[in-house]
Amino acid sequence: MAATRTIGMRLTWIARMLRTRFDARARSIGLTRAQWRMIVTIHLAEGATQKHLAQQLEISSVTAGRILDRLVAVGCVERRADPVDRRANRVYLTSVAVPLMEVLGALGAEEEQLMTRGLSPEEIATFSALLQRVVENIQAGPALEAADDEDDFEKTL
Q1: Nearest-angstrom CA–CA distance, 128 and 6
Q2: I need a surface site. Which of 1, 55, 85, 117 has the fewest CB within 10 A?
């Protein structure tokens, strides 16, 4: 039983290390964590509303709006009126963001290579399949109210 409790802690530490490393590398190209997360989320949901993007990122709509304002100001993102709902805007990446996506993709690939160094292709496939099963197990569990901010957990320690 003790071994399974450490799996969650290790996953937490791994996630933190990956974020920290990627953040530092993204900062080297002038992006904050919030900005690169928003750019990637828009890329995956091109034409989404600000509200949808905020939900995907698990941040408030106001916070998403501020991040989007900064990205619009530097020309990476544009808001377009929703043809159906006059109150909503749809968010799209511009051609300015294309090279950023390429750099972010390359950084991600480099970090993944570092993370899986020394693992065979078969081990990587097995590891990926096991992680997917863990994701499915968690998703199949009872729904819980989400925390507003992952940093709230750190404040309670």
Answers
A1: 19
A2: 1
